Amino acid sequence: MKALETELVPSLYVNAWRWLTPAVIGASLGTLALAIPSVRELFQLEGLRWLYILLFAFLGTGALTPLMVQAGHHWNLVDTPTERKIHVQPTPRLGGLALYGGFVGSVMLNSILPDWMIAILAAGSLLLVVGVLDDIRELPASVKLLAQVVAAGIVIASDKVLTLFPAGPLGDAANIMLTLFWIVGITNAFNFFDGMDGLATGLAVLLAGFMGVVAFETNQAGLGWLAIAMIGAGLGFLPYNFRGARPAVIFLGDGGSMFIGFTLACLAVKGNWADSSPIVSFSNPLLIFGVLIYDMVHITVERIVTGKVRSVKEWLDYVGKDHLHHRLERALGSRQASVAMILLLTICLGLAALALRHAGPTEAVLLLVQAGLIVAMVTLLEVSGRRRQ
Length: 389
What we know:
Blueprint: H1 2-15, H2 22-34, H3 37-45, H4 49-74, E1 78-79, E2 91-92, H5 95-109, H6 115-136, H7 141-157, H8 169-192, H9 199-217, H10 221-241, H11 253-270, H12 278-288, H13 290-305, H14 312-317, H15 324-332, H16 335-357, H17 361-388
Antiparallel strand pairs: 1-2
Helix pairs in contact: 1-4, 2-4, 4-5, 4-10, 5-6, 5-10, 5-11, 6-7, 6-11, 7-8, 8-11, 8-13, 9-10, 9-11, 9-16, 10-11, 12-16, 15-16, 15-17, 16-17
């Protein structure tokens, strides 16, 4: 086994020569430079810790991704096209490892790791491992769900829960169950969106961006740093995953999409969204994650009403092209247009969430009504496309 590894690993570097473009070389050298303690201290002294985190995550992910492309092809860890998939050529699915390396590296070098951040990183690492194993050898949906519940339990055990219900035995139990449902639900909903080039990564950048704005507005530096690390890692991965009309050279895979979805869900739990009103505090993450929540509710209701699923097990095992990006592609006639529409919809809802934080009761209601109308318009567009088909 050791002889085989000795033979395979050097060949990765030999075959990776075509990826050694000036951009990749620059990213690698930039990552090494940022890892120097004196360079890191200079950023901190200048009050640019956020920029350091962003640059390290961006350059680190950008430098690691080409190696993951070669590793995926070399060990045949590729996503092979089938009838239920939309890509047309075998594509490596180890992108999550590159993004994870850039993200975690930037957070670790930031030198500040409170207990809640360690819990999120540890639980997210568990899901990354399970997801990569699923990418290598498909695991039952129940195994992945169990891993998600365990990961959510790790975060809850660090005393990070939603506080929608009042304190007390019943209220505390309800808050724990709501937190579990939120984390597992958002993790799966985000995983479902990893179905078109650039979609999941673009969503990760936008969702983290809106949460980062709230974090720094409310003096939650730790939360903001995690959000910035996710933005940088996503931007470093995006050029390989979204290339316009050309196909992606690598996918996030289940490991990457579950890790991102879980991390973003946990940031929402950790964040203090509004001091003045519980309604605003609850509505903010609902708007920022509105696209994910809308798709999850839509497919669940439709699958039950149409008889496609009749049990929780059938729902977990069901695979189909009925998600928002699939429905918009049929309506708009273009995958790129579908991705653009979803990202624009996310921006609209995210901006509404930011405005909601500073709005009075009347303005808050109007913003929520506006968000509902936007979702209704998208639904009408989907129905029109379905009838045309």
